[in-house]
Amino acid sequence: MKCSGRAEQSNTETDITLYYILPSLFAMLSSEFFFEVLRKSVHLVSILIVLIYELYGKETILWVLMLFLVVVLVLDYFRVEHGIRIPFFHIMYRKSEVDRFGGHIFFALGAISVISLFSREIAYAAILMATFGDLAAALIGKFYGKRRVFQKIFKNDKSIEGSVSEFVIDFLIGLLILGNPIVSLVMAFLATLTETAVNKIDDNLIVPVFAGFFGQITMNFLAYL
Hints:
The chain has helices spanning about 1-40, 45-55, 60-80, 105-115, 120-145, 150-155, 160-180, 180-195, 205-225. It has 9 helices and no strands. GO terms for molecular function: ATP-dependent diacylglycerol kinase activity.
């Protein structure tokens, strides 16, 4: 009878785990995953940036980006200064962005910078690396990252899994657009290093600028060899 009682108790605990705890965990994970994908998906507009640049030229895409920047600056002014919740967009802000500008503003500034200063191919690669490399690092690092090896160096909890996935994605983007493994390697390394090292500076601005700058320098140097 005691064994039977223990078995029933064990079955009850298993049922509770299966029917209450596990679904709750999956719900939390799925909602967190959905939020991260949704927040990062805004940056997928980088594909549209590349298409407009390719089809209509440099001046057109710069005007489009400036218009976008002005609009989001106005919206963020009302959000930050007056606490007005912008419909739909408010769910995509992190807690740290409640009282400061959102990442989309720095992303626009980064895109404007690299398009203005660097060659078309370098600009394409830098913008797409800032988007898809960051997306890979965020999702892989958040949900699969286990080795937090940067705590002593960069004072953060970013994982080696996230950084490696970002580097691989960035390198493949470079090869696809530039076709030059050396320039692609330099840009992928700088993009990954910058994204991993920064904590308080918005990586939407600094990653494309650093990757684009050193990519352009490397390309110009190789052209003279």
